[in-house]
Amino acid sequence: MGPELPQESVRAGGGLWHLRHPRPQAPRPPPPPSWQGWTTTNLAIRESGGTSSRPGSMLWTVELEGGPQRVNHAAVAVGDRIYSFGGYCTGENYRTIRNMDVHVLNTVTYRWKAIDIKQEREFVPFQRYGHTAVAFGHLVYVWGGRNDVSACNILYCFDTNTHEWSVPKVHGHIPEARDGHSACIINDHMYIFSGYLEYVESYTQDVHTLNLRTMTWSYIKATGPAPVYRDFHTATGVDGIMYVWGGREVASGWYDSPEHEEYGADLYALDTVTNRWSIIPCSVVYRGQIYVFGGFNSRKCLHFNDLHRFDPVLHVWEEVKPLGQGPCPRRRQSCCVVGSKMFLFGGTSPKENYDEILEEDPNGEEQTDRRLKDHNDLHVLDFEPSLKTLCLLEVQKLKLDTTWLPRELHMLLNFMQMPNNITRPLNHTG
């Protein structure tokens, strides 16, 4: 069993992704702080290997505004594109039924584009938040989530080749409508865990799986120490194991007040062969594969922008400190890995005058939106920055004359500096 985890690191609303790479020999770093109550619905997987980054060699390379301004959205990587589906934005109407928006990011040019959907309403999901999206080949399956009126349990499929939606015919034990659940792909199956059930106003510990070959839903009768009732946690699949971590825990399953929220430090693992849960203790780490960014400490109203990783083989954690200027502290953003880069976008953070607003209305739940700032920025973390990337960053930093540069490098510099135009600039740092 690892060391006791400090309570000041309790948090919610961070980001998780899975990166595969070999482990070089290096000294062990000191024990990291814990991260309790971290929640999100996103993940990304890097399937190929490559040269592993040495501690400290990771580098934040790009920061651009003007992308989709979203919180609690769902995103997946398909090839060299990242697709972002729906999400919440302060000030928008979530009571009126309208089509879910879809944005696609070109990870080479860092350009966002809104996809124009021209289909009958019956085939397109309504705009929502708290849903999940998983990629299966060139298809993306979106499930769950809610608007300000109701939740949904209809499965939608988005074809990234045709940019068209469909509603696959499914069979079996269909899960109840919910939001704040998690989803991941393991061996041609989409696994759904937990979330908030709208119709009974309670949380669940249920595990459901959808066979994406036969489109059949099944209820998993899992054994072992299951995670506490929760929502807005995260899950990712690695070698037949579904790892679940973070979220807002409610021991009774019934939410009645913030005072009854809990934020545990345990990492849970479901063996999808035996359908048995186990709890993985935390300890000092050497080299990791599953990455966690940011989050929120609801007990102390603290947002974070630190980075940690977990090794699913050694069952150990470590804190990672990349070089460069990273995102500001935030929660409920999306993170996807494409090649050797991690793309982080969206999320929410407290406004600069958060303390003043809190003093004016310390208990007003309806005032939460005006205390927070929803982000439209894109940040890129390069796990293996090339010499070309490092040189371009120095040219940018030193404001060197670029007239002599080849056209290709001119274009790359422009891509790294030119804001997107999906939304207006917010004029904030990180």
From TrEMBL:
> Coiled coil: present as a keyword of the record?
no
**Compositionally biased region (Pro residues):** 24-34
| PANTHER family documented for this protein | KELCH DOMAIN-CONTAINING PROTEIN 3
Region entry Disordered, spans:
1-36
Q: What is this protein called?
A: Kelch domain-containing protein 3
Q: Which residues form a coiled coil?
A: none
Alphabetical GO CC annotations of the entry are: cytoplasm
Keywords, alphabetical: Kelch repeat
| InterPro entries the UniProt entry points to | Kelch-typ_b-propeller, Kelch_1, KLHDC3-like
On whether Secreted is a keyword of this UniProt record, the answer is no
Q: Which GO terms describe its molecular function?
A: chromatin binding
